[in-house]
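To: structure subgroup
Subject: Chain for Friday's discussion

All,

I'm putting the inputs and outputs inline so they're searchable in the archive.
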Amino acid sequence: MLGEDLRRRKEALSLTTKEWSDLSGVPVGTINKILSGETKSPQYDTLCALEAALERSGGVLTVRETASYQSEIFQKKQGEYTVDDYYALPEDIRVELLDGELIYMQAPLTLHQFFLTELLFEFQRYVRDNNGNCLVLAAPLDVQLDCNNKTMLQPDIVIVCDRDKVRREGVCGAPDLVVEIVSDGSRKLDYRRKLSKYADAGVREYWIVDPKRQAGGTYYFEEDEMPYKYGFQDRVPVRIYGRRLEVDFSELKTRLDNMNIS
């Protein structure tokens, strides 16, 4: 976990939290929340500042490729980042770009991956059985939602029926259906900011799957203003396919329970 890794490196340098705060400019309280795991997905500029302070103290910097890039990125504020900055990041740094803000992404847990693969299978099977033209694609995949230079997201699953939107490097434009599988660190982002962003960009249908709450909601922006709320005992229709495809979440829950994932 991120907090445990940072704590080990801090202790190896015999660095106190107060010293780390003074070197990085990050408040002591913020550092303590990251180290304890309370904050699982810190802002990218916060992470950069902490990493830079570790390097100055003799640690290893892992969030940049070159010193010149570090200098450049520290000159920007959240809201000012572009797709060029996104592509310039080291490959091992997982972030999304949303309206010029870099959002750090936590590595997915087993529960998240279970639902991703199960839903991917359900969607792909339907498309193949019906000789459909839509493409079913899974993260990590760059989706330049507005085809502008301020947003680059990585939804968990997308269905894209307009093949002209699919490029070698990812998707440019709004997918027909987007699925986000909620984690503790992404809950507000998925339920609020991404909901609004997907609606404004022209996504036809948006699914939120919340394993911790064993519930979720689907938004069909072409017709409904309110979400269709469901629990893991329900069959959930895919409305871009006229409800001809339904995902049986009770079946998924049974398989999940048999796996005994805590």
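Points worth raising on Friday:
Residues 136 and 159 are 5 Å apart (CA to CA).
The two ends are 17 Å apart (CA to CA).

D.
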